[in-house]
Known about the structure:
This protein is of the alpha/beta class and 210 residues long. The protein contains 7 helices and 7 strands, in the order ααβαβαβαβαβαββ.
Amino acid sequence: MKGALLPGLVLAAAAASAPAGRSGTASLDAQVLTFLDGKRGDWQDMNVPYEDGKVLHDLIVSKGFKKGLEIGTSTGHSGIWIAWAFSKTGGRLVTIEIDERRHAEALGNFEASGVASFVDARLADAHQLVKQLTGPFDFVFSDADKDWYPQYFEDVEAKLVPGGCFTAHNASSPFGGIREFLERVRARSDYRTTIDRTSRAGISISCKER
């Protein structure tokens, strides 16, 4: 790893604050939608498709989650959807990216979309930082290196509160790490796992029993 990529190096997108009142919420909604619609066909760098971003957003809002972790920011597409959801629930997202260029671009996208105040964006090695984070979390989204999915789950599982959900992208892919992760989580009697196939990539949603 590059020397600059120290675990726990925090480059927060902005200080936490929430829009005040209905007018503020409506204004943020309009800003986020305009940004997402304007860039709908432009996301590269292993970002999730638009449809999967909406799946994550709707899951968070429907369950009222407030403490989120994203493993693999890329340039911020999924993070915008997640943070937008947290703007409605009063929550906040910690998101981790190891690549300096992608991290910097994500910070700009969080600012431009209006969700920066709901994001704690960290430039770090997730292999190390996920172990160090204390949590608790009620929502986790894994979209980093696929071979490490089983380890990410092991590292964060004890920090996931009952009723919380661990989600993972590319669940329809045959990669070894994804297959191993799904086998492991499905073997847990205290989790219920479904696969959302809104997009071809698929999102696994594993919710911890209360």
